[in-house]
Automatic annotation (TrEMBL):
Sequence ranges assigned to domain Tyr recombinase in this UniProt record: 180-404
Protein's name in the database: Integrase
GO cellular component labels: cytoplasm
Coiled coil (residue ranges): none
Annotated source species: Roseateles puraquae
Keyword Acyltransferase (UniProt): no
Length: 410
C-alpha cells in the first residue's frame, strides 16, 4: 500500500485493506496504535502492542457468551475501521471530540458505498462487497453502541493500555423511564402468522420439510419462549419426562442452557410435545428423543433418517439461518395481509418483526394469563436456584399453570 504525503494511505485503499476481520486488518504502521497518543506509558496488564491485539484481549472475556461476543466484536470492529479510514488515526489516539463525530457518523454512515451493505443483501464477512453497516442506526442502537465502546475504553484503561477513556467525559444521562415493550405481535397479527404457515405449500418432499420445520420453529419459539441462541444451542435430548409429585401424571420438560450459561426448566406442554412428535415424524425419526440425544432442535431441510447410508446427526443450523426462516415467514404474512387489504401499518409491523418478537409475544401472553413468577421462571428472567431441583411441587404447579393458559392453537 502506498503512503500519501500526509503519512496515511488513500482512504479507499485503506478501507479495502482494513476490511479483513478483526485481528487480520492490515494497516500502516503509524495506524497500528503502537505509538497512539492516548497510550499509557505505565505498567500494562496485557501483552497487546497494537490496538487490534488490545481489542482481542478485551473480547476474550466474552468467549463463553456468544451473543455478547458477537455484539461487542461488531462495535469494536466498526470503530477500528472508522478510526483508520475516516480519521486517519489509530483507536489509541482517538479523542473525546473524535468519539462525538463517530456518534454522529453512526446515524448516517457516509460515504454509503464504503460503509453500507447493498440493499437486501446479507453477505459473508469475507465477501469483497461486505460493509460494516446495513444502514443508519436508530437512536437506541447508537446508545447501545456507545455503551459497548465505553466498556471497551474503560477496560483498556484498567488494563494499562490507554491513559484515559475519552468517552468518560460524555454527559451523564438521566435514568430513563421504564421501557414499554412494543416489539410483539397483537392477537390478529399472530393469528395471521400462524395462518401463513398452515397455508405453506406441501406438494413436494422439500415443501413438506420446509413447512414442518417452520411450524416446529414457531411452536418452539412461542410455546417455550426460547431465544434464538437457545434454539441453536440446545438439543432434542434436553427434553425429558418426570412424574408429577402430587398426581403421579407424566410431565415433559426441556432443560435449557440459556443466556449467561444459566439453566432453566421450561414446561413442555402437551401442545409442544405434539408438535415435537410431528416434526420428528417428518424427519422419519422416533416420536420422542432418547435421553441425551444429541440431535439439534432444527434440522437442515434435506436431512432424512432413511437416507442410505443412514446419516449422522447434523450440525445445528446457524443463528443467521434461523433468523432468515423467521423473517421469510413474517414477510409472507405481511404479503398476505396486504393482499387482503387489511392495512399497511400492520403489514409493515410484520415485516419489521424478528425472532425476538416471538419471545416478547410469548411473554405478553404469559404475563396476562399466568402467575408472573411462573412466567419469570419459564422465560429465564431470573436464574434457577439449587433448591429448585428438589422442590418438584412448585415446578409441577408451574407446569399446570403454563399449560392452561399458554397455547398456540394451530
Amino acid at each position: 500500500m502506498r503512503e500519501t504525503k500526509s503519512g496515511r494511505g488513500n482512504p479507499v485503499e485503506l478501507v479495502l485493506a482494513s476490511q479483513a476481520p478483526l485481528g487480520e486488518m492490515v494497516v500502516l504502521d503509524a495506524l497500528t496504535g503502537r505509538d497512539g497518543t492516548n497510550r499509557s506509558r505505565g505498567h500494562r496488564q496485557i501483552d497487546a502492542e497494537t490496538d487490534q491485539d488490545a481489542v482481542l484481549a478485551w473480547l476474550a472475556r466474552f468467549v463463553d457468551s456468544p451473543n455478547t461476543l458477537a455484539s461487542s466484536r461488531r462495535e469494536a470492529e466498526r470503530l477500528l475501521l472508522w478510526s483508520v479510514v475516516e480519521r486517519g488515526k489509530p483507536l489509541s489516539s482517538l479523542t473525546h471530540e473524535d468519539l462525538l463525530i463517530y456518534r454522529r457518523f453512526l446515524a448516517n454512515p457516509q460515504p454509503a458505498a464504503r460503509w453500507v451493505m447493498p440493499p437486501g443483501r446479507k453477505l459473508a464477512r469475507r465477501d469483497p462487497a461486505w460493509r460494516p453497516f446495513a444502514g443508519p442506526l436508530a437512536d437506541a442502537s447508537i446508545r447501545q453502541s456507545m455503551v459497548i465502546l465505553n466498556s471497551l475504553m474503560g477496560w483498556l484503561v484498567e488494563a494499562g493500555y490507554l491513559s484515559g477513556n475519552p468517552l468518560a467525559l460524555a454527559k451523564r444521562r438521566r435514568k430513563a423511564a421504564a421501557p414499554r415493550v412494543t416489539r410483539f405481535l397483537e392477537t390478529d397479527l399472530w393469528q395471521a402468522v400462524r395462518e401463513t404457515i398452515v397455508a405453506m405449500p406441501q406438494e413436494t418432499l422439500r415443501e413438506r420439510a420446509v413447512y414442518a420445520r417452520s411450524r416446529w420453529l414457531f411452536s418452539l419459539l412461542f410455546l417455550a419462549g426460547l431465544r434464538i441462541s437457545e434454539v441453536v444451542g440446545n438439543d432434542m435430548g434436553d427434553f425429558f419426562m418426570r412424574t408429577d409429585a402430587t398426581t403421579g401424571d407424566p410431565r415433559w420438560w426441556v432443560q435449557v442452557l440459556g443466556k449467561g450459561d444459566k439453566e432453566r426448566l421450561v414446561p413442555a406442554t402437551t401442545e409442544l410435545m405434539i408438535e415435537l412428535m410431528k416434526y420428528r415424524r417428518a424427519l422419519e425419526l422416533s416420536d420422542l428423543p432418547s435421553p441425551g440425544e444429541p440431535s439439534p432442535l432444527l434440522f437442515p431441510v434435506a436431512w432424512r433418517r432413511s437416507s442410505h447410508p443412514a446419516p449422522a446427526w447434523p450440525e445445528a443450523i446457524s443463528r443467521s439461518a434461523v433468523h432468515t426462516i423467521v423473517k421469510e415467514v413474517f414477510a409472507a404474512a405481511a404479503d398476505r395481509w396486504e393482499a387482503d387489504g387489511r392495512g399497511q401499518v400492520q403489514a409493515d409491523k410484520l415485516r419489521a418483526a424478528s425472532t425476538h418478537w416471538l419471545r416478547h409475544t410469548a411473554a405478553s401472553n404469559l404475563a396476562n394469563g399466568a402467575d408472573l413468577r411462573h412466567a419469570r421462571d419459564t422465560l429465564g428472567h431470573s436464574s434457577l436456584t439449587t433448591t429448585s431441583i428438589y422442590i418438584h411441587g412448585e415446578d409441577d404447579a408451574r407446569h399446570s399453570a403454563i399449560s392452561a393458559v399458554h397455547r398456540i392453537g394451530w
